[in-house]
Specification:
This protein is mostly helical. The chain has helices spanning 2-37, 47-104, 119-134, and strands spanning 110-111, 114-115.
């Protein structure tokens, strides 16, 4: 479970880096829009055509950044799901151990094949059902 939490922390750092990269690219792209709209474009075959390659590079970098961000978000979702699954498995194991302990204890109530437990243990049974329902 610890390695999953470490990977989540690493992903958060990577996401911050990717978001920072995206902000920089967006500023560069917006700066070009402002220059073009500001009347600096003197003729139709001047700097606009020369700048086209740079704009294409910025857009390609933008789409790469978006793809990286999507990959990181997807992996984060997978890790959160894996963590939740491990937590439910751990709770299920603890619940089974508690049930066994109570069944072995003298005085366990058995009625019609159903063991009667206190409310705390019974509510924990739902944890097991939740886990089995998510799978």
């Amino acid at each position: 479970m610890t390695h999953l939490r470490q990977e989540l922390a690493k992903l958060e750092t990577e996401q911050s880096s990717v978001e920072g990269r995206g902000v920089d690219i967006e500023r560069q792209l917006r700066g070009k829009e402002v220059r073009k709209e500001g009347g600096i474009q003197a003729c139709s075959n001047c700097w606009w055509l020369q700048d086209l390659d740079e704009d294409d590079k910025l857009m390609a970098e933008w789409f790469d950044m978006v793809q990286d961000k999507t990959r990181l978000v997807r992996r984060e979702s997978e890790l959160v799901y894996e963590l939740r699954d491990l937590e439910l498995i751990e709770q299920h194991d603890q619940l089974e151990a508690e049930i066994r302990r109570r069944l072995l204890k003298d005085g366990a109530l058995v009625h019609c094949g159903v063991c009667v437990f206190d409310c705390n243990v019974w509510s924990q049974c739902r944890v097991s059902q939740d886990r089995d329902g998510e799978a």
